[in-house]
Automatic annotation (TrEMBL):
InterPro entries in the record: CRIP, Cyclophilin-like_dom_sf, Cyclophilin-type_PPIase_dom, Nucleotide-bd_a/b_plait_sf, RBD_domain_sf, RRM_dom
Domain PPIase cyclophilin-type: 6-150
Pfam families named in the record: Pro_isomerase, RRM_1
Keyword Nucleotide-binding: no
Compartment list: Nucleus
GO molecular function: peptidyl-prolyl cis-trans isomerase activity; RNA binding
GO terms for cellular component: nucleus
SMART domains recorded: RRM (SM00360)
Segments crossing the lipid bilayer: none
Main location: nucleus
Family stated for the protein in its record: Belongs to the cyclophilin-type PPIase family. PPIL4 subfamily.
Protein name per Swiss-Prot or TrEMBL: peptidylprolyl isomerase
Length: 301
């Protein structure tokens, strides 16, 4: 019951409160599956208090996928003032918005209803809390959501996830770096690869995401790296297998990466293993679209 947010500042794993906040959890999963949050910036940073995100149209008002910005629901989970990393939808009485907040410290004055908690990524939260801000609380160097992965969907929404979208021109126009205007205009004129470099998803526009890495999620917690290697080696030679684990407990977070020696092996594995049953779980596989996996490994170890 968790979702992975990949950002250019590090990864965040949100554990959803599906029992105490089912409506909010279901809505958040649906929004993540539809790639709604891609390129949403983190804004309104209040050090050791909270940060907001979830508006891909920023700085314009959110264009919600629902007829109205706010979604009807029955208020459920309440804020725990002692807990860091709580995830809340913005609320307006008995309605909530797709925009969300994450608590950065023990707080009592955030309006909203909790639907999840950060399970991994506290180093990323510390980075966000400590970054240099402008007068509105926006980081001077953008921090944005690059990809969303649903690691476990207890609602079995079975939505057909679209491919990760390219940023729109309006989103590109809103990107911000510690550069002067002329340099920023030059960057905006570059290709999509350079746009991803600006966001931090690529260390260089000349370095492409690996075509030899397969992302896998919705794993059974008992599944091991050796199990995956045994199952996937029939598609080609494997360089490495990594299941991401909770750094405190060592328990599987039910997703990982399989690196092959060839692109063709990845393609064969993708065609054959999407929706396959491994240890009584129907797994999801996808092409890994980021170079950040190895650079962010310390986030999970």
């Amino acid at each position: 019951m968790s979702v992975l947010l990949e950002t250019n500042a590090g990864n965040l794993v949100i554990d959803l409160l599906v029992d105490s906040a089912p409506t909010e959890s279901r809505t958040f999963i649906a929004l993540c599956l539809s790639k709604f949050y891609h390129y949403s910036p983190f804004v309104n940073v209040r050090k050791d208090v909270a940060v907001d995100s979830g508006n891909p149209c920023f700085p314009d008002p959110i264009a919600a996928p629902q007829p109205n910005k706010y979604i009807d629901y029955t208020p459920s989970s309440r804020l725990n003032p002692e807990k860091v990393g709580q995830v809340l939808f913005a609320s307006n009485g008995d309605k909530f918005s797709p925009e969300f907040s994450i608590s950065l410290g023990p707080v009592t004055d955030i309006r909203g209803h909790v639907f999840g908690a950060i399970g991994e990524g506290f180093t990323t939260l510390e980075y966000i809390s400590d970054c240099v801000l402008d007068e509105t609380g926006r980081p001077l160097k953008d921090i944005r959501i690059l990809h969303t992965f649903v690691l476990d969907d207890p609602f079995s929404l079975l939505l057909e996830a679209p491919p990760s979208p390219y940023p729109t021109q309006k989103q590109i126009d809103s990107f911000r770096l510690l550069l002067d205007e002329s340099a920023l205009e030059d960057i905006k004129a570059e290709s999509h690869a350079l746009t991803l470099e600006v966001l931090g998803d690529l260390p260089s526009a000349k370095i492409q995401p690996s075509e030899k890495v397969l992302f896998i999620c919705k794993l059974n917690p008992v599944t091991t790296e050796d199990d995956l290697r045994l199952i996937f080696q029939r598609f080609g030679d494997i360089t490495s297998v990594e299941i991401i684990r909770d750094r405190a407990t060592g328990h599987s977070l039910c997703y990982g990466f399989i690196e092959f020696t060839s692109k063709s092996a990845v393609e064969r594995a993708y065609r054959k293993m999407e929706g396959a049953i491994i240890d009584d779980r129907k797994v999801h596989v996808d092409f890994s679209q980021s170079t950040k996996r190895k650079r962010n490994r310390n986030e999970f170890t």
